[in-house]
Amino acid sequence: MNKLLVVFPEYETMSIYLSEDGGDNWTPVAGNLEENPDGSGGGPSVRWLATLYVKDHPVYLAGTSVGLFSTIKLDGMNTVWVQEGAETIGNMVIDMIDVRQSDGYIAVATHGNGIYTAYLTDVSTSVTAQTALPEHFVLHPAYPNPFNASTTIRFELPRAGMTRLLVYNMLGQKVATLVNNYRSAGEHTAHWNAAGVASGEYIIQLQFEKTRQTQKVVIQK
User: Which fold has domain 138-219?
Assistant: First the structure.
């Protein structure tokens, strides 16, 4: 096979390159993992790449400084990498990925938080769907609202970048920080457990780059 993939585990540089002719020519395929098309900006450091063939279809896995990402299609800088294990691995630094082709076994080693394992046997059900990226920055209405103890907030990012999701009371005092890290492009979900928070009205604010969106939620106990 003449296909090669290499990573550059540095910041402020293009992270992933693909060659399909044995190394004579290289194409960047970091896609939405980069903040800017030239690799500059606050994109994560890519530490490891692995390829697992599931029913003869390649699944590409990227271990980064902000978690595990996957894609089933390398399409230059249009490649869409989707975060995997957001609720388990989260945004931990990934030091190494190992795969076993015979049964789809994956082992992911994190920096300081142990090793996570899984079996990947069906691309259609086990890999996050590769969908078109949203065109706009969107904060969806929290649900439920009003609520008693917890609510869920969905938001969409048109590209990767530092993201903050904060909760303020009506005096402008910060009550909770729900998200404060680098997020990939696409749809994300956050949960606010407000069991110990008093009844009343609160403001949820989503901050991305220089843009802010807010919405009001109500706790009723």
Answer: Immunoglobulin-like (2.60.40)
- Is 0.90 surpassed by the pTM of this model? no
Q: What is the pLDDT of residues 141-192, one digit of tens each?
A: 999 999 998 999 989 888 888 899 999 999 889 999 999 888 877 888 899 9
Helices (H), 53-201: 123-126
Lowest average pLDDT, out of 99-103, 127-131, 166-170, 171-175, goes to: 127-131
HSE at residue 98, side-chain half, CA atoms within 13 A, is: 7
Q: Of the candidates 73, 13, 5, 86, which has an alpha carbon nearest to the alpha carbon of residue 45? A: 13
Buried-exposed string 78-87: b where 16+ CB fall within 10 A, e elsewhere: ebbbbbbbbe
Residue ranges of domains in the chain: 4-126, 138-219
92-121 burial code (b ≥16 CB/10 A, e <16): bbbeebebeeeebebebbbeeeeebeeebe
